């Protein structure tokens, strides 16, 4: 109950919240014990556009299981993330491959989103020292501008700037920088809808600023929160199971 | 002219020991030239022929691919490729042409837990390419080539790749790479055979075009068109490339093998080595001839004076010495070629074995073979003979000029 009061204060109160309060409010908005979605990923590399459809099952913030449904070439490919570990199942070679090392920085299915981007979302508080710069307007809406600097420069993005919608408590825009100050990626979220009492961005656009003309759009086609999960989903057995 | 020839022959016989010594020098030089050229041309010729066979005497790629080739831009492909291939095959200078895809992949034994770190250049081509151009230069050391009876993907590994992986024919391997969009591409393939040929071949892996198309996600295309001209000589290859440029127009880069970056740098060096070698041999032999002729002039100063006093012209004096020198040079060169030919033949048939270690050391930069064979050519024989003639002319010119410039009265005085 106290959290809802806090959310209300952050959203509508006149006081400037701390970064920790903002991040906690963001988490509270999107957190669920489980969720199930079907997402369309549109990758435009400036040359041609490809579409992927995938079913995603998530448990808390730690675990996720992704199964590619389309196109036919990639159908059957699965990805499993449990804690800080990630594996991919390659159907043609019937092989489970742990994603580590140089593979982490590769674009997932050639998209602007790297495997590492998928891995390093949950330990934000531990890795970054964030501060609220102030309130700014973005696309006609009030946002809190958060500036986060990595505590350890070995992280992929040593600096992040986040524009958090003051009402929806969603980072509608993020800029990710290298240690040199070069802008590496821009993430933006749009089409915010209320689902099961939560404000959810149904569209996310990731732009790898180092790839000319490239962008990846993730569109959530269906989404359910707090769904009962099959026990096997977050296991290697699920990964190797042929659908 | 006859009396000049007689005089030259008589002079050559006058100091037989010195003439034989000079003749031996020229003979050794000519034999050395022939043997060395045979060996060098064998090495270079073998390398360039093997390379051109595998990478195409003439190669066609898109302009975009040529610009970024070092990055292997699979997206800069020709898809569909059939229309371009038909245009290429219709050019009269073209004997045949094949569409191929080359891409870097990581290959791992199928049963291995972790993804390995063995990288290989995966070459996918049509059946005609393998049958006509790759199989003749590749020795199957295990298993066989692709089989229509075998279901699933098939692969033939180069000797070094198989060795690094520790796999044999009939084992399975997993190929992992990126497709033209940078997305993960993978497949499992049965090792049909293991081949060995040269250092390039040993480091590559071969798959049917369909498998390569799947890996690169280029459904009906190819990355390169390798063109084999009717006339495979250097001039024939250049003419074919010119004809193709006229046919295909802009948008493509059409290169004869000599213009590809590897050979653009190395060919002039190879040619220069031949010329430097020939120049050294000519110089050394010319020194010997020069010495002989100078001695001859000094010994015959009085005689030259008498002949000049009797009316022999300057030009005739020069001709006598040049002819003597030519007789020695040409005879020495002919004997040298005859002596060198058996050695050259031995090089061409038996070859020099460097061993597999040297091949592995060379890596995949040049197509080096474990045994290198010489290449006897009429060209090399003519160069060896020309060296004898050039030597004779260069070495005798100064002494001959000197002899012709001695005034008759001085020559007569020196005789007293």
Task: Name the descriptors.
heterodimer; A: 243 residues; alpha+beta; 13-stranded antiparallel β-sheet; 5 helices; disordered N terminus; B: 416 residues; six-stranded mixed barrel; 12 strands; 56% helix
Please describe what this structure looks like.
The complex is a heterodimer of chains A (243) and B (416). Chain A is α+β, with helices and mostly antiparallel strands and 243 residues long. Chain A has five helices and 13 strands. A 13-stranded antiparallel β-sheet of chain A has the order 6-5-4-3-2-1-13-12-11-10-9-8-7. In chain A, helix 1 packs across helix 2. Chain A is globular and about 55 Å long. Chain B is an alpha+beta fold. Chain B is 56% helix and 19% strand. Chain B contains 15 helices and twelve strands. Chain B has helices at residues 2-14, 16-55, 63-67, 82-89, 127-134, 159-165, 199-202, 209-216, 234-248, 261-299, 301-309, 314-349, 356-362, 378-404, 408-415, and strands at 58-62, 94-109, 118-125, 139-143, 153-158, 172-178, 184-196, 204-208, 224-229, 252-256, 352-353, 371-372. Chain A binds chain B through residues 43, 45, 47-48, 50, 73-74, 77, 88, 90, 92-95, 97-98, 106-107, 109-110, and chain B through 75, 110, 114-115, 174-176, 178-179, 181-184, 186-188, 217.
């Amino acid at each position: 109950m106290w959290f809802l009061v806090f959310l209300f204060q952050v959203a509508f109160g006149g006081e400037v919240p701390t970064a920790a309060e903002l991040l906690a409010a963001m988490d509270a908005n999107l957190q669920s014990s489980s969720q199930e979605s079907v997402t369309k990923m549109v990758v435009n590399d400036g040359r041609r556009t490809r579409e992927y459809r995938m079913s995603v099952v998530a448990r808390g913030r730690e675990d996720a299981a992704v199964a590619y449904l389309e196109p036919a070439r990639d159908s059957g490919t699965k990805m499993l993330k449990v804690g800080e570990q990630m594996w991919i199942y390659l159907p043609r070679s019937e092989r489970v491959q742990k994603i580590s090392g140089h593979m982490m920085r590769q674009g997932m299915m050639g998209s602007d989103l790297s495997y590492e981007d998928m891995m390093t979302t949950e330990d934000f508080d531990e890795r970054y020292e964030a501060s609220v710069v102030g309130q700014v307007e973005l696309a006609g809406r009030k946002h809190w501008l958060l500036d986060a600097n990595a505590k350890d420069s070995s992280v992929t993005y040593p600096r992040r700037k986040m524009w958090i919608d003051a009402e929806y408590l969603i980072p509608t825009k993020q800029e990710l920088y290298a240690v040199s100050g070069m802008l590496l990626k821009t993430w933006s979220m749009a089409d915010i809808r209320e689902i099961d009492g939560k404000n959810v961005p149904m569209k996310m656009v990731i732009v790898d600023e180092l790839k000319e003309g490239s962008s990846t759009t993730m569109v959530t086609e269906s989404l359910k929160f707090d769904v009962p999960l099959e026990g096997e989903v977050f296991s290697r057995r699920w990964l190797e199971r042929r659908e | 002219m006859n009396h000049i020839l007689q005089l030259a022959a008589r002079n050559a016989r006058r100091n037989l020991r010195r003439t034989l010594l000079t003749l031996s020098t020229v003979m050794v030089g000519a034999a050395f030239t022939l043997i060395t050229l045979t060996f060098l041309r064998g090495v270079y010729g073998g390398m360039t022929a093997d390379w051109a066979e595998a990478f195409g005497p003439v190669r066609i790629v898109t302009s975009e691919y040529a610009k970024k080739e070092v990055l292997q831009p699979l997206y800069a492909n020709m898809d569909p490729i059939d229309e371009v291939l038909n245009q290429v095959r219709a050019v009269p200078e073209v004997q045949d042409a094949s569409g191929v895809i080359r891409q870097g992949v990581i290959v791992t034994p199928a049963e291995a837990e972790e993804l390995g770190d063995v990288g290989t250049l995966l070459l996918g081509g049509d059946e005609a390419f393998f049958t006509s151009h790759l199989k003749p230069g590749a020795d199957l050391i295990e298993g066989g080539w692709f089989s229509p009876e075998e279901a699933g993907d098939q692969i033939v590994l180069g000797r070094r790749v198989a060795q690094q992986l520790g796999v044999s024919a009939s084992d399975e391997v997993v190929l992992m790479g990126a497709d033209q969009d940078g997305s993960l591409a993978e497949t499992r393939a049965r090792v049909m055979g293991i081949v060995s040929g040269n250092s390039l071949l040993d480091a590559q892996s071969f798959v049917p075009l369909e498998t390569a198309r799947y890996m690169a996600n280029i459904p009906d295309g190819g990355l390169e068109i390798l063109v084999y001209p009717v006339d495979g000589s250097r001039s024939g290859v250049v003419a074919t490339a010119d004809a193709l440029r006229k046919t295909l127009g802009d948008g493509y880069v059409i290169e004869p093998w000599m213009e590809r970056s590897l050979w653009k740098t190395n060919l002039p060096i190879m040619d220069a080595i031949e010329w430097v070698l020939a120049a050294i041999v000519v110089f050394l032999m010319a020194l010997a001839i020069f010495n002989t002729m100078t001695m001859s002039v000094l010994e015959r100063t009085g005689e030259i004076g008498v002949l000049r006093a009797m009316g022999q012209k300057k030009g005739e004096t020069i001709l006598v010495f040049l002819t003597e020198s030519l007789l020695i040079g040409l005879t020495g060169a002919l004997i040298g070629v005859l002596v060198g030919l058996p050695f050259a033949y031995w090089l061409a048939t038996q070859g020099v074995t460097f061993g597999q270690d040297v091949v592995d050391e060379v890596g995949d930069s040049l197509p080096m073979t474990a045994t290198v064979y010489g290449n006897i050519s009429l060209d090399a024989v003519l160069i060896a003979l020309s060296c004898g003639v050039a030597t004779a002319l260069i070495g005798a010119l100064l002494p001959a000029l000197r002899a012709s410039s001695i005034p008759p009265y001085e020559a007569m005085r020196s005789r007293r």
